[in-house]
Design a protein that fits this description.
single chain, 18 strands, 402 residues, twelve-stranded mixed sheet, six-stranded antiparallel sheet, alpha+beta
Length: 402
């Protein structure tokens, strides 16, 4: 089947702002793999696809339209999250971060404290949803369970290991207050990953229907998205689309370097019937420490901002290059990685440089930090170049920006 090219679709969205956001999508999609854990809902298959069901032929465009029209409101299932970015082992620092957050006035039940835990390895989850205002995700451990429950205007999170709970007020669905925030959130389900991937489709991309499969006992079509450009670290994105509902059941992103997928997102078991109302009920257990999210926000506002330079730099973010070779450039407004011991930074410099590669060019010098998907060059004067591109592409972009 010939690739479906979305040039016509892009022509319909020709205003400058939207075009700029599409160009940046090549950077956003792989970075969202890391941000997957921040949303606390990552869905990854544990079971291999079984069989290739005989389904009616569809074109890639028809399959994309089927995804766009999908409107599944109710479901429950068992899922797994597995992420392999090739990051170095943190030697238990994940638990230290969560413990440190709690000692610093935060809560181990705060969803953001689970970022490091879900950023690597394989984890089992249970998920449930009943419309936009009711959802539950439970991360299962051998001896503990962590859950995030959204029920109406309330959000609860509970960590059974520490017996701590986190409570916050959720904005109403569809409210103007919620919309801008929702647009900025990273993908958190196979459908959201698929939506972001499809936003980045243009003439630099091949999109085809790659046969059929069974995922979680459901017949599905496989949509294959592949960059046409060289120099990107993205090999391919495969999306298994439920033949009946159009819901993406599985999202797999493989690197150009080959090997295991960087991330898989999909169901191992799924049921589209209405979950029991009690699924979304939660009352903190007796003796649990409860932290109010509004209190944490007030504390953070009262504290001096140590990341003002970085925030200012992100405000001036630029996108260099086209398509899958897009690179995000911004200035932190400060120094880059410590590069010498004369200032007493020898130990820090040695540790950071052991995690990256020192490079030089017209831009000066800096360090490239690499994962299997996203690479970032931090120059000694504080500029950052990052994207799903090779180290050579980052150095070339930094030289051209001078």
């Amino acid at each position: 089947m010939a690739p479906y090219e979305s040039d016509d679709t892009l022509a319909d969205e020709a205003d400058d702002v939207r075009a700029g956001r599409r160009k940046a999508a090549r950077y956003v999609v792989p970075v969202a793999v890391v941000g997957l854990a921040a949303a606390t809902i990552g869905l990854v298959p544990a079971l291999a696809d079984s069989g290739d069901p005989n389904l009616p032929k569809v074109t890639a465009q028809q399959l994309i339209e089927k995804i766009a029209k999908s409107d599944v409101q109710q479901l429950s299932g068992t899922v797994k999250i597995s992420t392999d970015l090739g990051l170095p082992s943190l030697g238990g620092l994940e638990s230290s971060f969560a413990s440190g957050a709690a000692k610093g006035g935060g809560s181990s039940a705060d969803p953001s404290s689970k970022l490091m835990e879900l950023a690597s390895g394989t984890h089992t989850l249970r998920v449930a949803a009943d419309g936009p205002d009711k959802g539950k995700v439970s991360l299962l451990d051998s001896a503990a369970e962590y859950s995030v429950i959204h029920n109406g205007d309330e959000v609860w999170a509970y960590d059974s290991k520490s017996n701590e709970a986190y409570h916050a007020t959720a904005p109403k669905s569809g409210s103007q207050k919620e919309s801008p925030k929702a647009k900025q959130e990273v993908p958190s389900t196979p459908k959201e990953f698929a939506d972001e991937a499809l936003k980045s489709v243009d003439a630099t991309t091949s999109v085809t229907v790659d046969g059929t499969a069974q995922v979680a006992g459901r017949d599905a079509y496989k949509l294959l998205i592949k960059p046409k450009q060289s120099g990107t670290t993205v090999g391919a994105i495969s999306i298994a689309v439920d033949a009946k509902t159009g819901l993406p059941l599985k999202f797999t992103l493989t690197p150009a370097s080959g090997g295991a997928a960087v991330v898989d997102a999909g169901f191992t078991r799924v049921d589209f019937s209405k979950p029991a109302a009690s699924t979304f009920d939660f009352t903190p257990p007796k003796g649990a420490k409860v932290t109010q999210g509004d209190d944490l926000k007030a504390d953070k506002k009262a504290q001096p901002k140590s990341d003002e330079g970085l925030t200012k730099g992100l405000d001036g973010l630029k996108t260099l290059g086209k398509g899958w070779n897009s690179i995000a450039e911004f200035d932190t407004g400060g120094q880059g990685v410590p590069s010498g011991s004369s200032s007493g930074n020898g130990d820090v410099s040695g540790f950071l440089n052991s995690l990256g590669d020192h490079v030089t060019g017209k831009f000066g010098s800096g360090t490239v930090f690499s994962t299997r998907l996203v690479n970032a060059l931090i120059t000694d004067n504080g500029k950052v170049y990052a994207g799903a591109v090779t180290k050579d592409a980052l150095v070339k972009a930094a030289n051209a920006a001078q």
